[in-house]
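Example (one chain per record):
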Amino acid sequence: MKRQTRTRAAIATAAVLVAAGTVTAGVSAAGPESKSGKPAKAQIAALFNGWNAALATGDAETVADRYASDAVLLPTVSPEIRTTRAGIVDYFEHFLQNKPQGKKIRTVVNVLDSNSAIDAGLYEFTLTDPETGEKREVEARYTYEYEKRGGKWLIVNHHSSVLPAAG
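Predicted structure:
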């Protein structure tokens, strides 16, 4: 039952994003800004799709291109805080060996102003063991803080942690 609810939520989220027409492959998100000059919440939520597409390339440098030069990454499967491009690339070189495929389960977007926003929620990754080919799913909490720099939306802070068991 719980799995069905999560699946429905993921499908609903994907449908909303597709309907909004804001799926991105590049660093900057397509889509209109509101009359206030702020990006639409759907535009910010869709930035995940570009990040996830970067993961699918299997190239750590491509993933690191989604991050600002002064970004902070608190990754899911490493105790080390990554504060340099080299550190972010190093993390993703190891993480990408598991061929991660991410999908959002729940997202909450706060658009702060025309150049900054936060997307927080739950996502799930399907990981493939590079030695056995066995797949497993990992649920995690996430927070992405984005800033628009030079016309591009970049990740300035990214925190991801395994979802704790229900208490």
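Caption: The mean pLDDT is 84.
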